[in-house]
Amino acid sequence: MNRSGQGLRLCWKAFDFCCQDVREYCEEKRKVKVMQTAVATFPPLVENAQVADPVRRFLEYVLNKREQGNPVVGVYCGYAPVEMIRAMGAVPVSLCAASQRTVPAAEAVLPANLCPMIKSSFGFIQTNSCFFFASSDAVIGETTCDGKKKMFELIAHLKPTFIMDLPQLPDDSAVLDRWRESVLKLQYFLEKTLQTSLAADRLEAEIRETNRKNRLMGRFFAYLTCRPIPVSWREIYNVITLEHVANSVEFQDLIEKISSSIDQRIALGQCFGTFSSPRVLVSGCPVGGDACKVLQIIEEAGGVIVALEACSGMKNYFIRIEENSGDPLRAVAESTLSIPCSCMTPNRRRLDLLDKMITRFQPDAVIDVVLHACHAYNVESYKIRNHIQDRHGLPCLKIETDYSDGDIEQIRTRVEALFESLETRK
Ligand code: SF4
Ligand code: SF4
Asked: Which of 132, 226, 287, 335 could connect to 321 by a Cys-Cys bridge, CB 3.0–4.6 Å?
């Protein structure tokens, strides 16, 4: 396979992108299920085909980078230190992981009662339909959960693969040293596999890039505090994905154009929902690809999404990496380790993050999305619900789901009941 990826079926569906054929498939399904969006359609946030089409944008970005000779590194998780990958001149790409279409192929090998994200990831590889996996020169996995780490054993022979040993007791005094050691081992692996080396000043520059982009993203997130809200959940996802294909200068330009479009919408009174539409914070497992049915249902039921806590949403953009620390590797390790994933125990930081997000985005309810068989997020959901109710007086609805569409009407009924209960609380 050459680096341009010629000859591959383009099939991509990671946390927040989907490829052309998968998207058409989903749109077809949506027609069948009559998932009509209730919200108005406004002009796009940016008049630019690249921006309006996240799928094409990302495919073209990766293909261009490969043509320029940049290696590609496939990642599955927010703990992968992307600044290090970029500092080595490589392109980090999130690998396909969120389509029901590849689940049956996976279930021929994996148990059916496994997290759909793991099954979908494996199915994409089994069916050779993840363009980005096929394009990857190396793959990074991590020991976040048992199903994932055992799945990695089944694919590790296909690509040079490095599994990062993630310490999961964030309050342990030695945790940062251990994680820095894992990050350092990854550096050695990438240097050997990609035949390159990591320069400290390049890593420092990438740290500044991430911080700049995260600050710019904060400007966009400020609009999510508006009531009524001027952007839809699809637009939130679309803007979030722009960061992956733009450097901070390009991203600043995009954010300025987007801000001006949103300001215009606000001036014209163009908003999604009304002043009293239920504002929802969605938390929990990554929600992308076919799991986005939950977000779609929330809007169709009359709600608006004002915050997405998961890794596929806003969580990682609140992170700031220490600059000029003298040990950029440690700074990167520290920032990734601060991600409050439920694989951590105790995971107090997730409650702290939710407190901040609730204070800032003022939701009327929290919907905690748990993917089937994700025990960590499922067990933690009890704590999350109690915290949200006791500390903030907000209702918290747990939805367990997968990537199939069999539960769409059941989810719709539960979301509508939640919104009705909000009415009676007024
Ligand atoms: S939820 Fe946890 S395991 Fe999943 S991508 Fe985020 S950090 Fe990784
Ligand atoms: S959602 Fe849960 S079970 Fe699935 S890959 Fe992520 S941490 Fe593992």
From this structure: 335
